[in-house]
């Protein structure tokens, strides 16, 4: 069995901490108070703070001495080691408090120069983790210990595909890609790391954010799609430079990245053709 990396352990520990509190829709409000208004319709809730505290406690127990970029804390330097952890401790908080259970914990490790060391996305709904190391490809593991290779789907045409298009919030619906929206067999609008995990295991065929873009720390989720055999580019078809994103986070820079994360090259070409109209 492939060796599970640090990011697997971190993501699984955070997920197992927050999952019991979120399993009951009524009890969820116990962690639901807003702790920070980040502007632009983005808020932090107590569950985000709880998840982030689990992250930093776990890193300190393990003696991690590199840098950490977390959605809530920003850039934190724990030591001088040339390693960097990037974490979205609880992805899709706002949806959770509207009763939508589409959430995940995402943790990635890189060198400070942007070389991929490992990444893991823990599914809150299903007790499993999608993860990858630098040379192992992508895997999906249950928390009970079963592990298998994670592989993107072979669906080649938009009309047969289950696509996710990032249109959930109002500001993303100003210029919807109408020619693409009419095509897929199934269509979703909920984005976040959970979508990347589901593309990597073949349950969803692609993700499209062609205009507004994903923040840097969320864009890294799609490196796992690439490592599961998917094609991850910008709308023009140029590969996403994950290393450059990490180097930017190491300077405290968060930018938005327009992205097509599609299961395979044939479907990627068809998605781009539909976007072009």
Characterization of this structure:
This protein has 277 residues and is of the alpha+beta class. The protein has two domains: 144 residues, 2-Layer Sandwich (Fructose-1,6-Bisphosphatase, Chain A, domain 1); 119 residues, D-Maltodextrin-Binding Protein, domain 2 (3-Layer(aba) Sandwich). Helices cover 29% and strands 30% of the residues. The chain has nine helices and 15 strands. It has an eight-stranded mixed sheet, with helices on both faces. A hairpin with a 4-residue loop joins strand 6 and strand 7. Helix 1 runs antiparallel to helix 2. The longest helix is centred in the first third of the chain and has 17 residues.
In short:
The chain is α+β, with helices and mostly antiparallel strands and 277 residues long. 29% of the residues lie in helices and 30% in strands.
How is the biggest beta sheet arranged? 8 strands, mixed
Annotation field: number of helices: 9
**Level-1 CATH class name of the largest domain:** Alpha Beta
Please tell me the total number of domains. 2
Low-confidence stretches: none
| Amino-to-carboxy terminus distance | 45 Å
Structural class: alpha+beta
> Helix coverage percent of residues?
25-40%
CATH topology of the largest domain: Fructose-1,6-Bisphosphatase, Chain A, domain 1
Strand content bin: 25-35%
Name the shape in a single word. globular
Task: Assign the CATH architecture of the largest domain.
Answer: 2-Layer Sandwich
- Name of the CATH homologous superfamily of the largest domain: Fructose-1,6-Bisphosphatase, subunit A, domain 1
- Major β-sheet strand ordering: 4-3-5-6-7-8-9-10
Please compute the radius of gyration using only Cα atoms.
18 Å
Q: Provide mean pLDDT, rounded.
A: 90
């Amino acid at each position: 069995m492939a060796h599970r990396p640090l990011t697997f352990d971190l993501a699984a520990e955070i997920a197992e901490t927050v999952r019991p509190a979120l399993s009951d829709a009524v009890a969820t409000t116990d962690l639901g108070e807003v702790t920070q208004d980040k502007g632009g319709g983005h808020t932090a809730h107590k569950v985000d703070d709880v998840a982030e505290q689990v992250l930093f406690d776990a890193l300190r127990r393990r003696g991690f001495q590199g840098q950490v970029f977390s959605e809530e804390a920003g850039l934190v330097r724990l030591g001088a080691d040339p390693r960097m952890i990037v974490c979205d401790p609880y992805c899709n908080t706002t949806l959770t408090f509207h009763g939508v259970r589409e959430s995940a914990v995402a943790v990635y490790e890189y060198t400070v120069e942007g070389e991929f060391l490992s990444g893991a996305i823990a599914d809150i709904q299903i007790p499993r983790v999608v993860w990858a190391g630098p040379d192992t490809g992508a895997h999906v593991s249950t928390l009970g210990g079963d592990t298998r290779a994670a592989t993107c789907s072979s669906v080649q045409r938009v009309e047969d595909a289950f696509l996710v298009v990032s249109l959930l919030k109002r500001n993303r619906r100003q210029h919807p890609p109408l020619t693409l929206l009419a095509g897929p067999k199934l269509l979703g609008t909920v984005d976040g790391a959970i979508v990347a995990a589901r593309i990597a295991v073949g349950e969803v065929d692609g993700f499209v954010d062609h205009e507004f873009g994903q923040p840097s720390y969320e864009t890294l989720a799609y490196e796992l799609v690439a490592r599961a055999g998917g094609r991850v580019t910008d709308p023009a078809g140029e590969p996403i430079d994950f290393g450059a994103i990490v180097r930017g986070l190491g300077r405290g820079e968060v930018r938005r990245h327009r992205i097509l994360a599609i299961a395979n090259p044939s479907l990627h070409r068809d998605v781009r053709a539909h976007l072009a109209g």
